């Protein structure tokens, strides 16, 4: 009976129960969605203050603004390099397995794509970086815009270091606030098995397994690609930096299962930050890399975008040349950065990319809607794992991780 008190066992039970209920009672899907959304909203309500406080406490405790700038710079370079690898692997596997070959286009689902195409038209990629600077920080907190909060948090941290004793008192207050917010998170996480149940019951009840029959090859190709990326690319990088990917995944197994059930990496963002700090990573690194990574290091989403583009080209018998595929990589390196914090971001960014390419019919997107929910779990898991690994790597490169603590907590 003691095993039932372990969180990840409870989450596994919740996922299994969700699959059963979703299969037997499809009409329960709307209620299941309410359960899942309520759980995710309970996490989201504390994400922005936790990010802000972690950034401020991390930077003020780092002792050197030069170090903060170096950590941020290393993070951005790492994100761009690894994201490029993710794009290339997605294109290679899609070309080898050809998941779009043999799918008829004369019976495309009659889906309303207007919300995606209009959103794609509204996205101005030239304004992406200017959007990082908030016009109203209260509004940024309300919307949960992590990049804007990160930007303000860095400026606020610098300001605190310049006000002397008053700043020291403020930091002490922030420390206590941070502890209180994490206590709220611990209370909410007790409901994570219920959230995982709701998310899985909704997915199975709403979309069923029927959509997997036609697009099963695409789904299989996507998960093969994600596994290759995690266990080859990330594993090799982890080994180069002297730590075990497998043991790190074992350390965050409860969070992985919650993401699988809830289909959202945001559901465990505060927990991952807390666990990485508990594993010996300095707060200044965790506070900078995790929030930035959730905007610039969406490896799972990047793989999805590259594979979906090639998939649709194959469906419509469009033979893309090597030059065109290299162009796709270049475009996605830019457009994929807009996937953060946008509802339906995968479809919006994919629509924007196809609009720029002007060679693949947009109506093909309707094929992806039915299977997208089954791919979203993989995207969320890959995004989360990528950012967790990135934080440990940047911390190690900065000698900002206590390896004695890390080995005891993660690898023992």
Commentary on this structure:
This protein is 76% helix and 0% strand. By secondary structure, the protein is mainly alpha-helical. The protein has one domain: Sodium:dicarboxylate symporter (Proton glutamate symport protein). The mean pLDDT is 82.
The CATH homologous superfamily name equals Sodium:dicarboxylate symporter
Give a short account of the largest sheet.
Answer: none
Identify the CATH class: Mainly Alpha
How widely separated are the two ends? 25 Å
What is the helical fraction, as a range of percent? over 70%
Low-confidence stretches: none
Dominant shape: globular
The computed structural class is mainly alpha
Got a strand count?
0
- Mean pLDDT, as a whole number? 82
Brief overview, please?
The protein is mostly helical and 412 residues long.
List key phrases describing it.
76% helix; 412 residues; 0% strand; globular; mainly alpha
List the helices and strands and how they pair.
Layout: H1 7-24, H2 29-62, H3 65-97, H4 114-122, H5 137-143, H6 146-160, H7 165-189, H8 192-207, H9 210-240, H10 245-251, H11 253-262, H12 269-278, H13 283-296, H14 299-315, H15 322-335, H16 345-357, H17 365-397, H18 403-411
Helix pairs in contact: 1-8, 1-11, 2-6, 2-7, 2-8, 2-13, 3-9, 3-13, 3-14, 3-15, 3-17, 4-16, 8-11, 9-14, 9-17, 11-17, 12-13, 13-17, 14-15, 14-16, 14-17, 15-16
């Amino acid at each position: 009976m003691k095993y039932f008190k372990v969180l990840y066992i409870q989450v596994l039970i919740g996922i299994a129960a969700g699959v059963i209920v979703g299969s037997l009672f499809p009409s329960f899907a709307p209620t299941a969605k309410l359960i899942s959304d309520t759980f995710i909203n309970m996490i989201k309500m504390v994400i922005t203050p936790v990010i802000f406080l972690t950034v401020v406490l991390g930077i003020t405790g780092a002792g050197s603004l030069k170090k903060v700038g170096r950590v941020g710079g290393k993070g951005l370079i790492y994100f761009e390099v690894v994201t490029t690898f993710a794009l290339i692997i997605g294109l290679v596997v899609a070309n080898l397995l050809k998941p779009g070959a043999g799918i008829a286009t004369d019976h495309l689902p009659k889906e309303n794509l207007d919300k995606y195409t209009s959103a794609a038209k509204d996205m101005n990629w030239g304004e992406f970086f200017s959007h990082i600077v908030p016009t109203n920080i209260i509004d940024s907190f309300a919307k949960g815009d992590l990049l804007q909060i990160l930007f303000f948090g860095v400026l606020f941290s610098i300001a605190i270091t310049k006000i002397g004793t008053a700043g020291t008192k403020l930091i002490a207050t922030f420390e206590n606030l941070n502890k209180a917010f994490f206590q709220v998170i611990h209370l909410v996480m007790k409901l994570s098995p219920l959230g995982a149940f709701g998310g899985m019951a909704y997915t199975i009840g709403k979309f069923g397994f029927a959509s997997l029959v036609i697009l099963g090859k695409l789904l299989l190709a996507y998960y093969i690609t994600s596994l290759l990326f995690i266990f080859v690319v990330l594993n090799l990088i982890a080994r180069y930096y002297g730590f075990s990917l497998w043991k790190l995944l074992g350390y965050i197994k409860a969070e992985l299962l919650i993401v699988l059930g809830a289909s959202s990496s945001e559901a465990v963002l505060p927990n991952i930050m807390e666990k990485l700090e508990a594993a010996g990573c300095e707060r200044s690194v965790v506070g900078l890399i995790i929030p930035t990574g959730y905007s610039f290091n969406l490896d799972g989403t990047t793989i999805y975008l590259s594979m979906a583009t090639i998939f649709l080209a194959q469906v419509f018998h469009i033979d893309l040349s090597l030059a065109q595929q290299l162009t796709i990589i270049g475009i996605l390196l830019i457009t994929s950065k807009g996937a953060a914090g946008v509802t339906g971001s995968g479809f919006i960014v994919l629509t924007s990319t196809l609009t720029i390419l002007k060679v693949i019919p947009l109506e093909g997107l309707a094929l992806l809607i039915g299977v997208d929910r089954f791919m979203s779990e993989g995207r969320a898991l890959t995004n989360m794992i990528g950012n967790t690994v990135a934080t440990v790597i940047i911390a190690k490169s900065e000698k900002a991780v206590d390896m004695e603590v890390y080995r005891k907590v993660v690898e023992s």
